[in-house]
Specification:
Blueprint lengths: L2 E2 L1 H7 L6 H9 L9 E2 H8 L1 H10 L5 H13 L8 H14 L5 H17 L5 H13 L6 H11 L6 H11 L15 H4 L18
Antiparallel strand pairs: 1-2
Helix pairs in contact: 3-4, 5-6, 5-8, 5-9, 5-10, 6-7, 6-8, 7-8, 8-9
């Protein structure tokens, strides 16, 4: 199970007000500290957007699992895409994450997915976003929030409860606080903007 600390979260986005204050309050704390904080706790008390941001910015390692999460999110919206090359890119990315495909195979599949976007002459907004999700998930540096943002643009369901289910499945996290009904912490502010296919990917910092 991935862990982070409030010190690391604060260092990545030193915001004294807004979402940071709400996060501290929900954790029953009044300041950052070095106590290990699990991804499961972040997900339960702050919501999936904060959990995804934490994975992108404040959890070192777990590259394989992060890739698999991005793939799972992107797969949710592939029915919006007519060209099979996007789905194939996700299959290759999945095999790459499991050590069954080479870097060269992954790069070729991701390039093919980007070309599929260019070749699709019946492209609408939902399909464009689904192509973007696939390209990000299969790209050299997939980020969770950017993939989820693209998936949201293709299908609102992909960025809702389904994403939390993927997080729990991939990181082995059963729901711990079934009675928490508070909204996600600053979800709109934490989400990444949709990034054009082929753009270099970097995680977005939380608002400061």
């Amino acid at each position: 199970m991935p862990h982070t600390t409030l010190n690391l979260i604060r260092a990545q986005s030193p915001a004294p007000e807004g979402w940071w204050s709400r996060l501290l309050r929900r954790l029953g704390k009044d300041a950052a500290d070095a106590e290990p904080l699990s991804l499961l706790t972040i997900l339960d008390v702050a919501g999936q957007a904060m959990a995804m941001w934490t994975l992108d910015w404040a959890v070192p390692g777990y590259d394989r699992e992060k890739r698999l999460l991005a793939i799972a999110i992107a797969r949710d919206v592939q029915p919006a895409v007519a060209d099979p090359r996007a789905g194939i890119a996700l299959e290759v990315a999945d095999r790459h994450a499991r050590g069954e495909a080479s870097d060269e195979e992954l790069a070729a599949a991701a390039a093919a997915a980007r070309q599929a976007y260019v070749d699709d002459r019946d492209l609408d907004q939902r399909a464009a976003a689904a192509y973007a999700a696939a390209a990000i998930a299969a790209g050299p540096c997939p980020t969770i929030l950017a993939t989820a943002d693209a998936a949201d643009a293709a299908s609102f369901a992909a960025g809702g409860y389904c994403c939390a289910v993927h997080i729990r499945r991939i990181f082995g996290a059963p729901r711990q606080n079934a009675h928490n009904t508070e909204p996600d912490l600053g979800e709109d502010a934490l989400r990444a903007a949709t990034v054009p296919i082929g753009a270099p990917m970097r995680p977005h910092r939380a608002p400061g």
